[in-house]
Write a structure and sequence with these properties.
The complex is a heterodimer of chains A (686) and B (572).
Chain A: E1 2-8, E2 12-18, E3 25-31, H1 37-52, E4 59-65, H2 68-74, E5 81-86, H3 92-95, E6 120-123, E7 126-127, E8 133-135, H4 139-152, E9 156-160, H5 169-181, E10 186-189, H6 190-193, H7 199-229, E11 236-239, E12 245-247, H8 248-253, H9 261-276, E13 282-287, E14 292-298, E15 301-302, E16 304-305, E17 308-310, E18 313-315, E19 319-320, E20 323-325, E21 331-336, E22 339-346, H10 365-371, H11 389-404, H12 408-433, E23 442-446, H13 450-461, E24 465-468, H14 475-480, E25 485-496, H15 502-522, E26 530-540, E27 547-553, H16 560-578, E28 587-598, E29 621-626, E30 633-640, E31 649-651, E32 654-658, E33 661-665, E34 670-673, E35 679-682
Parallel strand pairs in A: 1-4, 4-11, 5-6, 5-9, 9-10, 13-23, 30-32
Antiparallel strand pairs in A: 1-2, 2-3, 7-8, 11-12, 13-14, 14-15, 14-20, 16-19, 17-18, 21-22, 24-35, 25-28, 26-27, 26-28, 29-30, 31-34, 32-33, 34-35
Helix pairs in contact in A: 1-7, 2-7, 4-5, 10-11, 10-12, 11-12, 12-13
Chain B: H1 6-30, H2 34-37, E1 42-47, E2 53-56, H3 66-77, E3 85-88, E4 100-109, E5 112-122, E6 151-155, E7 158-159, H4 161-168, H5 174-202, H6 204-227, E8 232-240, E9 250-259, E10 262-266, H7 282-294, H8 305-308, E11 311-314, H9 332-351, E12 364-371, E13 379-386, H10 414-420, E14 423-430, E15 446-452, E16 456-462, E17 483-487, E18 493-496, E19 499-506, E20 510-514, H11 529-537, H12 543-550, E21 554-555, E22 560-561, H13 563-571
Parallel strand pairs in B: 10-11
Antiparallel strand pairs in B: 1-2, 1-5, 3-4, 3-6, 4-5, 6-7, 8-9, 9-10, 12-13, 12-16, 14-15, 15-20, 16-19, 17-18, 17-20, 21-22
Helix pairs in contact in B: 1-5, 1-6, 5-6, 7-9
Classes of the chains: A alpha+beta (686), B alpha+beta (572).
Chain lengths: 686, 572
């Protein structure tokens, strides 16, 4: 019996297998196959068998993190999609709330919608703000619309009518008409995907769903078939943006919920590592080739956001609150108009940094780290890519050192310092926006480049602890094995606070919960394994944002006192988040949410067996590395992380290598291994 | 002076920007009113030991440098001491208009004045004759609300509650306004803390060297970019429909002189100050000028004092750009849009192929008020803004349906406004054939039809663009003009001028807005036929306009270009 988690990255597909009997974890990487991600997953399973003797029929849980939907969006390679909107309101995608993402740029262009205007149809119908039918949808109009869709020859249709969250019948009738007229067309309804008010954001969400739906549908169908052929007999589950799992059927219907599949797995894995290390509050820093993803963990829980943004369009589904900064290993360093810039432009994986020797000519932060001696040119990505250190140094010398009048090492250190300052500013922005002080958090780096820079970032932000989690290079895949099944039901029902009674709330929640329990039943999860959390989005009248207020657990009836308590808690929560509240201000209830968590068996991090203790652990070698003002060139011991025992301690300066990444310990830093294999680094007070 | 290296320069420059953004985030997070939080109508800044601007957060273009003038006034006129906080809004003493209240905190390290943290918030109401302190027909500055000279709202760490009481007694929604003022006070306190951290990190003398270098660097970049334009004197004029009192057009005239990386913007020749509230205090005139020039250089130059050094403003006393008190000025925003656009127009002559079509310069800021339900004294005011199309550029078409050069707030969702107010937005779509045609066309304008559903109420609109359309450039056509109509429940159509205050409206009435399309770039007959085809298929350009103006024959049925007919059209 094994649990297997798979995460598809740009270059590699990571596979993690967990043995629930022994607690042992094995990992491997296979090359990603962008045109057929399901094949890479199958390749991974074959490798698991060949290298570790884990056969596919022995796998009882299989979880897949996928970037298929994300890539289709970023590359504009989704399906030919049409949009149906209420007559008179079909341009929300183009008007984009009249807002623009940048100031002072006359040449800027706004993001191009996934549906062109010619494939948008205005439908004669209108639901009013109270849910009443202002203009009925006639059968003739539904048929006319469906016929037009058939003639357009689209693969997928998004339907987003005004106030469909109050009365979804018009959207449903349009779907039925299309299914009759063009049965092979995929249809996404906004009242299914995102039954919340704010038409622009809802329309973007359902359009995104429709745009990626055919691809995800075909991927999962193919995958299920191939897994069946290989003898897999359990349920395939997919990682969602919200850090929870869903089955393939759900993913096929609501693919927009997979957009952050990979990153969410990483943050869930990081949170589990932090909890196991006794750390409740952490800022995670997932740094790859092109960008840095920052997320917050508070009270041991991953912070979620009710919405996000991809390629310039809002996506209104709950997701792990990840903030992306243009700082990665491939960030390009340039002397430009009198100052040294690092990023946001990136050399990516192709051509990649100069040291890859694939044609990159501008030095990147990876070239700087190599020049400083931090990276072992023969052990990058576990030795799978050989790096050319001389080429990197030459690029740093020509592009940075000469104009700055520095030697190559100081120029490389300058690149690192600018990069670190940018990262610190990004993390400050994320935490301060929420009113939080980063000094009260631990820093949790992962991804290929995170632990290279974590030391200096922590110092810059005054953070005293760094936790480099176990398996930092496959944390996203590992995280999928630590997640429960999670589904949310939400609906908008506007109600002034003084009209809110227990019965009103009860009726709404009972309806939401019955829908939710049906979903869990389809997932094959027993009702007694499901925990429900009710909450409401509430605001003061006139505000354009809501505060989410918990109603507490349970699925029983809600009394009038509970309703009053809910409003009281709103004032308290508003004060907590925004610094003030006012009991005399009129209050409005907007959205009602139920989050259901269906418990499944998970992987857990257990104490390591074996490994040497501190005194027994010998460095595997040594290397010269440059620490700038913090000690200049030093001959550092180099350790293999896997050799470090459960109570090992390493004093900086030192380098700790593992497949896929290197941990840089600056002079005065001290790392200790904890029982489960996390490295805890103490940052000296500056 | 010790040279500041490019690495330190980059790091400190980015850090300063990060601080003012943090201050802005704190202000937004703790503010009470939607105008600050959702319209983003606020800004924050840090100043050095001579009250020079060292960093400003970029949210709303019109706030360019507005805090800067006020900071200098306060530095010059107030005896600043540790733990003071100063409040200020006086439009004739360095402020902009009444609702823009500024808060400053002087920062002292070891007893030495090292700078100031400042914040500006547009407040929902500061008293005066109309709700929101906004009308189109105020006759003097005293009608427009409460004016606050530089006063210590906190003195030596002690809050002067008397000032709060005085303000409270003079404004309509005191708890929101005073709450926002406290949020601004929290923001400047955060700015003070971070500025002191920088002082501790670098030491006072070194920090002032680095800060001076950061400012010099912005100045150098500005001069480099401005130096790339050919030296010369360029003039341009632009007009507004009227001043809210009379329908006589109001003229903005600029003479832009570019001289070796410096720019002088001379407003001599602009209209005399007007009767209605569309005058600009000199601080606002500076803001519009800086903003206009800012669009002419790299958007990446860090915002500080150095950006303003190469720019000189000449604004004759007694004109619309430098009125004498007590001329009213609460509607200055529309004048600012016109000024900025006129500066861009003057620069166009020096931009050659990089000229741009005119942006709509029309911003409809409108308010609908009434009662929520029968028999209840429950009033509402709904407020929103309409943008329009931007000008075509050498790299692409102008932005469709976007706020103006000087603003950038989001519209109110239809579903939000209809759930809260007895209104129904019956149409909100792009307007076919509104864009100025061109090789790169202007942005498309839009129309909105709003139905008033219940009882009786009022409609106020501060807008422009009914008489003067955005011009095209390098052979591009002009965009369309704005139209505002009131269609009564019985079908009577009333054409409204672009500025109306408190029009009576009743149940069943329709308010109809047609906004402005942007000016085109280049000869429309040179537009790629495939792009014309796209626009026709997308319904943004009619087949007639395609044929007559773009000289492209589109077979709409088949969805293709009629190549032979197009060749013939373009040959003729």
């Amino acid at each position: 019996m094994f649990y297997v988690g798979v995460d598809t990255g740009g270059t590699f597909t990571d596979v993690v297998a967990f043995d629930p009997d022994s607690g042992e974890i094995v990992t491997l990487k296979v090359p990603s196959i962008p045109e057929d991600p399901s094949q890479a997953l199958l390749d991974g399973l074959v490798q698991l068998d060949q290298r570790h003797g884990i056969t596919t029929p022995e796998i009882t849980r299989l979880i897949f993190g996928t970037t298929v939907a994300t890539n289709a969006i970023i590359e504009y390679k989704g399906a030919k999609t049409a949009l149906l909107a209420t007559d008179g309101n079909r341009d929300a995608l183009l008007i984009q709330r009249q807002w623009r993402p940048r100031l002072f740029d006359l040449f800027m262009q706004k993001p191009k919608p996934y549906v062109p205007r010619r494939l948008t149809i205005g439908v004669a119908e209108r639901i009013g703000a109270d849910g009443s039918v202002v203009r009925a949808l006639t059968d003739e109009e539904a048929e006319r619309t469906a016929t037009a869709i058939g003639e357009m020859g689209v693969d997928s249709v998004a339907v987003s009518l005004l106030f469909s969250f109050l009365d979804p019948s018009h959207e449903q009738r349009l779907r039925d008409a299309i299914k009759k007229c063009a049965p092979n067309t995929y249809v996404s309804l906004s009242s299914d995907i995102c039954p919340e008010f704010r038409e622009y954001e809802r329309t973007c969400t359902v359009v995104t769903n429709a745009y990626v739906m055919p691809k995800i549908d075909q991927l999962i169908e193919r995958l299920a078939q191939r897994l069946g052929d290989a003898g897999f007999a359990s349920t395939l589950r997919i990682m969602q943006s919200n850090g929870g799992l869903m089955n393939g059927q759900q993913a096929r219907a609501q693919p927009v919920k997979t957009l952050l599949s990979g990153p969410a797995g990483g943050v869930v894995g990081a949170a589990a590592a932090a909890r196991a290390a006794g750390i409740d509050d952490a800022i995670t820093m997932d740094m790859g080739g092109t960008s840095l993803d920052v997320a917050m963990i508070q009270g041991g829980q991953v912070k979620l956001s009710p919405d996000g943004n991809l390629s310039g369009f809002p996506i209104k589904v709950p997701q792990v609150n990840i903030h992306t900064i243009g700082a990665g290993g491939g960030s390009i360093a340039r002397y430009f108009r009198g100052t040294l810039k690092v990023g946001p432009e990136s050399a990516g994986a192709d051509p990649g940094p100069v040291c890859y020797g694939k044609g990159g000519t501008e030095p990147t932060s990876t070239d700087a780290a190599l020049t400083l001696g931090f990276i072992n040119p023969k052990y990058f990505l576990g030795g799978e890519v050989a790096l050319d250190a001389d080429r990197a140094k030459a690029a740093i010398t020509d592009n940075i050192a000469k104009p700055l009048d520095l030697d190559a090492a100081d120029a490389a250190m300058a690149v690192v310092r600018v990069q670190v300052a940018n990262m610190a500013n990004g993390i400050r922005a994320v935490s301060v926006e929420k009113g939080l002080d980063p000094r009260e958090f631990a820093l949790l780096p992962f991804g290929g480049a995170g632990s290279l820079y974590a030391g200096l970032v922590a110092e810059e932000l005054g953070m005293s602890t760094i936790l480099v989690p176990v398996q930092p290079s496959v944390l996203s895949a590992l995280g999928t094995l630590m997640s429960d099944v999670k589904h949310t039901e939400v609906v908008t029902r506007f109600a002034p606070g003084n009209q809110v009674k227990g019965q009103l709330l009860t009726d709404i929640f009972i309806e939401l919960e019955s829908r939710l329990m049906e979903t869990f039943s389809d997932e094959g999860i027993a009702a007694d394994k499901v925990t429900l959390e009710r909450s409401c989005d509430i605001r003061y009248r006139g505000q354009g944002y809501e505060v989410n207020v918990a109603l507490g657990l349970g699925d029983g009836a809600i009394g009038d006192t509970d309703a009053t308590n809910l409003l009281d808690r709103f004032h308290i929560e508003h004060r907590k988040q925004f610094g003030h509240s006012d009991k005399d201000e009129p209050v409005e209830l907007m959205n009602y949410r139920v989050v259901g968590i269906g418990e499944v068996t998970k992987a857990e991090l257990r104490p390591l067996n074996g490994g040497g203790t501190a005194n027994e652990t010998a460095p595997k070698g040594e290397r010269r590395a440059y620490f700038g003002d913090a000690g200049g060139w030093q001959v550092c011991p180099v350790f293999e992380r896997g050799d470090l025992g459960s109570d090992a301690a390493v004093e900086g300066p030192a380098l700790i290598e593992e497949s896929g990444t290197v941990i840089v310990l600056y002079p005065g830093y001290r790392a200790t291994m904890d029982a489960i294999g996390n490295l805890r680094i103490e940052v000296p007070a500056s | 002076m010790k040279k500041v290296d490019p690495v330190t320069l980059e790091i400190v420059s980015n850090h300063l920007i990060s601080i003012v953004r943090e201050m802005a985030a704190a202000l937004m997070r703790t503010s009470y009113s939607t105008i600050i939080r959702e319209m983003g109508d606020y800004t924050t800044a840090l100043f050095g030991a001579q009250a020079e601007l060292i960093a400003q957060a970029e949210h709303i273009p019109s706030h360019q440098g507005t805090l800067s003038e006020a900071a200098k006034t306060i530095f010059r006129t107030v005896k600043l001491e540790p733990e003071d906080v100063v409040i200020f809004n006086h439009p004739y003493e360095g402020g902009t208009h009444h609702p823009d209240i500024m808060i400053f905190k002087p920062v002292f390290a070891d007893g030495e004045f090292v700078g100031m943290a400042g914040s500006l918030g547009h407040h929902i109401d500061v008293g005066g004759r109309s709700p929101g302190s906004a009308s189109t027909d105020a006759l003097d500055v005293f009608e427009e609300g409460l004016m606050i000279p530089a006063l210590k709202i906190v003195k030596g760490g002690v809050v002067n509650e008397d000032i709060f009481d005085m303000i409270r007694a003079n404004i309509r929604v005191p708890h929101k306004t005073l709450g926002d003022i406290r949020a601004q006070m929290a923001a400047v306190a955060l700015g003070e803390r971070h500025l002191l951290e920088l002082v501790a990190k670098y030491g006072r003398p070194r920090l002032s060297e680095v800060v001076a270098a950061v400012i010099d660097n912005s100045e150098r970049l500005m001069r480099e970019d401005l130096g790339a334009y050919e030296d010369g004197t360029y003039t341009a004029e632009g007009f507004m429909d009227g001043d809210g009192i009379s329908d006589d057009p109001v003229r903005i005239f600029v003479t832009v002189t570019i001289d070796n990386g410096s720019v002088t913007v001379d407003y001599t020749g602009s209209s005399a100050q007007v009767k209605g509230p569309f005058n600009c205090a000199i601080t606002s005139t500076h803001a519009a000028t800086w903003c206009g020039v800012r669009y002419m250089v790299s958007p990446l130059i860090p915002q500080n004092e150095g950006c303003y050094r190469p720019i000189k403003v000449i604004a004759p006393e007694g004109t619309i750009v430098r009125p004498t008190r007590p001329a009213p000025l609460s509607g200055r925003f529309h004048t600012l849009e016109r000024m900025t656009n006129t500066i861009v127009k003057a620069f166009n002559q020096a931009r050659g192929e990089n000229a741009v079509g005119a942006c709509h310069s029309h911003l409809s800021s409108y308010a609908v008020s009434g009662t929520l339900a029968d028999g209840e004294d429950d009033h509402f005011v709904f407020f929103d803004l309409n943008g329009g199309g931007w000008g075509g550029t050498p790299v692409g078409d102008g932005l469709d349906a976007t706020k103006g050069l000087m603003s950038n707030s989001r519209d109110c969702p239809i579903e939000s406004l209809e759930m809260e107010y007895p209104l129904r937005m019956e149409r909100y779509e792009l307007l076919t054939d509104s864009a100025g045609a061109g090789k790169q066309r202007g942005g498309v304008g839009f129309y909105r039809v709003l139905r008033y559903l219940h009882g009786d109420g009022y409609f106020t609109n501060r807008s422009d663009g009914q008489k003067f359309a955005p011009e095209g450039v390098l052979g591009g056509n002009q965009g369309t003009k704005a139209r505002h109509k009131l269609i009564r429940a019985d079908g009577t159509v009333i054409d409204m001028s672009s500025k109306v205050t408190n029009m009576d409206i009743h149940s069943g009435d329709l308010i109809h807005f047609e906004t402005v399309g942007g000016g085109g770039y280049g000869n429309p007959a040179e537009r790629a036929p495939e792009k014309v085809l796209d626009d026709v298929l997308d319904g943004l350009v009619s087949a007639e306009q395609a044929r007559e103006i773009y000289r492209v024959a589109v077979d709409v049925e088949k969805g293709i270009i009629d190549d032979d007919a197009t060749t013939a059209l373009r040959a003729g």
